[in-house]
Amino acid sequence: MSAGGAASRAPVRLGLRANLAQFTLLVVVNALVGGMLGQERIMLPLLADQVFGLAASVSGLTYIVAFGATKAVTNFFAGAWSDRYGRKPVLVAGWLIALPVPALLAFGSVWGWIVAANVLLGVSQGLTWSTTVIMKIDLAGPERRGLAMGLNEAAGYGAVAVTALATGYLAAAHGLRPAPFLLGAAYAALGLGLSTLIVRETREHARLEGAGHPVTTHPGEPSTRQIAWRTSVGDKALSAASQAGMVNNLNDALAWGVFPLIFASRGLGVVDIGVLAALYPAVWGLGQLVTGWWSDHVGRKHLITTGMLVQALAIALVAAGDRFALWAGAQVLLGAGTALVYPTLLAVIGDVAHPAWRARAVGVYRLWRDGGFAVGALLAGAIAGMWGPDAAVWAVAALTAASGLLVAARMYETHPEGRR
């Protein structure tokens, strides 16, 4: 019997320890997914400004709108397709779509090619990141869901940080194009190879958990429309998580598209901008190693509320700052606040959604969350175009604080430890 045949007949068990090899592999795959996003974090704002002559306006942020809108919609379908066809085929499809992206970014001669690359990247990220989330939730089972999401998001955003820093140094040494985007080409090739040859399907793990987790709210399995309503509006915890996720990525769009231009306009060079751009996702990524685990022990709600308020303070400090040290502190604070929020919101979805329809609930939540990229780019671009980038930063800070207060008022605690 082949090794693959033996593995396919191995008993299905839940838990991180029981599935350590596959879980670790999926952590690596999600780091590559994050690296595909990291290649853009400082390069595209600078390309828009210095190569294509587009300022911090709606026109200059169209690549974020394209990315956010396509990723948001793809997230929704990724959840449904993962339930219908399995997780692995969706993951592999996402990597296939990613293959042309680095070449388009490196050699596109008109802005439309950059926007087209971000349409493909949004579809790819929606498929790959969604399925790695779903697969880790499948493998981990209910006991360590927060830790699993912390490890997943730490890998992804740690890679965003490392790649952003690396592209800054490559751009300083070799120019804005094409050298920084060679990293993305390597990530796409490696991610496709690992996902095709080594990653295994996890849908049976969800079925195993579902067999011991009866539906208690409605007889039978709800329709996709019912799941979308429950996640978006009907359930207080799920809907509060969805709006917080959207606002979280709205302020990430600001950090991606506007912060580098503010720093450049105040005299910072590309290496310093790269350091600042890396600090935020680095703290975000590493912090999730702690915050996901922490939410398994103290509950979800208060970490999310605190994290949104900390983010609001950090964003305000960027607008108020005038030197590298203060901006660096703000980036660290923004990363810490996001680390409190990001894996914890995913854990809320996993807590509330039944395993039979959890993948679709994750898809709906990620539809709202990543729609925040498009909303944030449009909002920040419109305000920056009328009143300047600083006004956009202040407006997003206020909106982020309001989102945290809404979580405090609406969300119920979803983890037993937080209800004690």
Automatic annotation (TrEMBL):
UniProt keywords, alphabetically: Cell membrane, Membrane, Transmembrane, Transmembrane helix, Transport
A Pfam family recorded for this sequence: MFS_1
Predominant place of localization: membrane
PROSITE patterns: MFS (PS50850), SUGAR_TRANSPORT_1 (PS00216)
Domain Major facilitator superfamily (MFS) profile: 1-203, 237-420
Lipid bilayer topology: Multi-pass membrane protein
Name of the protein: MFS transporter
Source organism: Nonomuraea mangrovi
